[in-house]
Amino acid sequence: MKRAQKISLKNGAQLLISPEADAASVTILIMFKVGSRYETPDINGSSHFIEHLMFKGTTKRPTTLDISKELDGVGADYNAFTSKDTTGYYVKVDARQLPMAIDILQDMLFNSLFDAKEIDRERGVIIEEINMYEDNPLMHAEELLEELLFGKKHPLGYQIAGPRSVIRNVTREKMLAYKEKFYDAKHMVVSVAGQVMPRDVKNLKKSFESYPTKPGKHQFIPFKVRQSSSRALVSYKKTEQVQMMIGVPSASLFDTDLATLSVLSVILGGNMSSRLFVNVREKRGLCYMIRSSSNPYEDAGSFTVQSGVALKSVKQALEAILAEMKRMKTEPVTAQELKQAKDFIS
Length: 346
Prior knowledge:
This protein is 40% helix and 19% strand. With 346 residues, the chain is of the alpha+beta class. The strands form 2 sheets. Strands 1-2-6-3-5-4 form a 6-stranded mixed β-sheet, covered by helices on one side. A 3-stranded antiparallel β-sheet has the order 7-9-8, sandwiched between helices. A hairpin with a 4-residue loop joins strand 4 and strand 5. Helix 1 (46-53) packs across helix 7 and helix 9 crosses helix 12. The two termini are 26 Å apart.
């Protein structure tokens, strides 16, 4: 196989093939259009919880160890992730082991047990994961910024892992009903990149074209900016450094300005020659880490600047960052800045 292919399966799922003839490995990634923004408050965290439970045993491989031993035995790199818009499962493996990787992912998606005892055991695991993120101010600041920006009552403002109270109490029945609704072939993409053979494509079609299709469409609550003045949120924790984030509503994944915003982000704070890095870190010595980023979702997004500073330097750093953000509006980007940013991205 030499060319990339996009194949629509009978059930509506999309199969993306990106062959690399010289590659010794192959990665298979399966993604569903479901994440925390599709949840309601009483099940917030269920998308992420279900992701964990997919690794807890199937009819063919009854325990976590049965799954992990098989993958570890061939040196596979495997994991899963949940965002606000999507959930994904992947395996990277020696190309000769692709049939095994396909079989395991198919088994997890079709035949996971969702054993009640495993669910109760996993509640503690997820709560410890929440504790880990909250003990890391660099990560926790991002969650708080989006909660403030999108609002606690809008699903984009929900935390992906959910609140501890829901994780402790959400029932197996509610989670399975949620999975049944959103794990739909019409909203599934199977992507394979690396050394892929024609026989592998046949195997992929056979393995996933029978995944169920549900009637209806996935609905989510669209986000509309209703903010008329600036807002602030402070979370207190005893640390040596203050993690500070500034954010504004921004471009979505389908916004025609997204590419422009990506270039602007590089110029403002995307590398070591950016305006923020030079003027806030190098010239003033106010921080070690400072960066800007564009964070798009399907219908909304945020543009943020983040930095870690000493408590005594918060006011000075905030003023310096806001000054650079304002300067992006008042001083045109130079031809050299634009060229360097485009070269950096490419």
